[in-house]
Amino acid sequence: MEERTNNPAARLYRSMYLIRRVEEEIIRLYPTDKIKSPVHLSIGQEAVSAAVCDHLEPTDILFGTYRGHALYLAKGGNVPRMMAELYGKVDGCARGKAGSMHLVDPSVGMMGTSAVVATGISNAVGAALALKMQKSKAIVVCFFGEGSTDEGAWHESMNFASLKKLPILFVCENNFFAIYSHVKDRLAGPGLQARSEAYGIPAEHVEDHEPMKLHERAGAALAAVRRGEGPRFIECMTYRWRDHVGPTEDRIHKYRPDAELDAKIENDNLKIVGSLLPDELRKLIEAEEEKRIADAIAFAEASTFPEDREIYDHVFAN
């Protein structure tokens, strides 16, 4: 597609629109019980995955969290196989065994998402060490929420990555809340950028509603990692619109002001990027992605469930 080479705003819009509409379809389908796993949605946060992954090569490796749909789709994941995975079907990217929370697809460099907070960070650092030892040109990108920085694994991983000058970009999706606990109630000291710099890792802080700036800064950070200059850290301010887990609204919990959420929805990053495109191009992208999503859902519906004997497959290495 022409926009892939000469229009970063069009590439971002396509990726963000795909993520948004796939997750809106998940919301629509979830009450039918066709989706067989819990879901953690990235609606409102699409710009982070789209901006970072636009710079990645097919051979680059990703690690993420249970809020992983956006990451998988932005990296070029197979939409039909992802939908089939959510349905628990045999044609899913993990043959129906991973579901939403543990998306994995090595064919696109998606090495897995984890439901345990911060566990992917140390795995990502191990992968980066392996790539360096192999003298590979590939790099690792590790996505995590700001809640992960409360864990010792984050500190140990940052220190080791800096010490060994590993080819890894740490991407913190700071959506302010670890479930319903605000970051101001958990984070002492000067903040995550300063914490990262204390480990000798160059770090940046990019505000929400600056998707094109994030795209630019992510590109610069990844270029430095590719040049062998060691790890980089970007704190990406963002905001989820839906509940921590599941497809529903969460206003009943009253842990964040309705006015705050309304303001984030009004200043939608998808609209911000879309406004940079000619109407004709924007509508073409939307039409193409709508067809792709409809085809993916039809694929998932037509797929079958795994046979019972498959419960014994992929348990141990042969």
Describe what you observe in this structure.
β7, α9 and β8 form a beta-alpha-beta unit. The strands form 2 sheets. Strands 2-1-3-4-8-7 form a 6-stranded parallel sheet, sandwiched between helices. Strands 5-6 form a two-stranded antiparallel ribbon. The chain is 43% helix and 12% strand. α2 crosses α3 and α5 packs across α12. The chain is α/β, with parallel strands linked by helices and 318 residues long. It has one domain: Rossmann fold, CATH 3.40.50.970. The N and C termini lie far apart (41 Å). It is built from 12 helices and 8 strands.
Keywords, please?
alpha/beta; Rossmann fold; two-stranded antiparallel ribbon; 12 helices; 43% helix; 12% strand; globular
Task: Produce a short descriptive summary.
The chain has helices spanning 3-6, 8-29, 46-53, 69-74, 79-86, 119-133, 152-164, 192-198, 211-226, 258-266, 269-274, 279-302; strands at 61-65, 110-114, 140-145, 168-174, 177-178, 181-182, 203-206, 232-237. The chain has 318 residues and is an alpha/beta fold.
How many structural domains in the coordinates? Answer: 1
The SS-based structural class is alpha/beta
Shape category: globular
Instruction: Tell me, rounded to a whole number, the average pLDDT.
Output: 95
Note poorly predicted spans. none
How much beta, percentage-wise? 5-15%
Total number of helical segments?
Answer: 12
- From the N-terminal CA to the C-terminal CA, the straight-line distance is 41 Å
Give the second-level CATH assignment, the architecture. Answer: 3-Layer(aba) Sandwich
| Helix/strand order | HHHEHHEHEHEEEHEHEHHH
The CATH class: Alpha Beta
Query: CATH H-level name... which superfamily?
Result: Thiamin diphosphate (ThDP)-binding fold, Pyr/PP domains
What's the count of strands? 8
Q: What's the CATH topology name?
A: Rossmann fold
> Main beta sheet: strand number and arrangement?
6 strands, parallel
| Strand order in the sheet with the most strands | 2-1-3-4-8-7
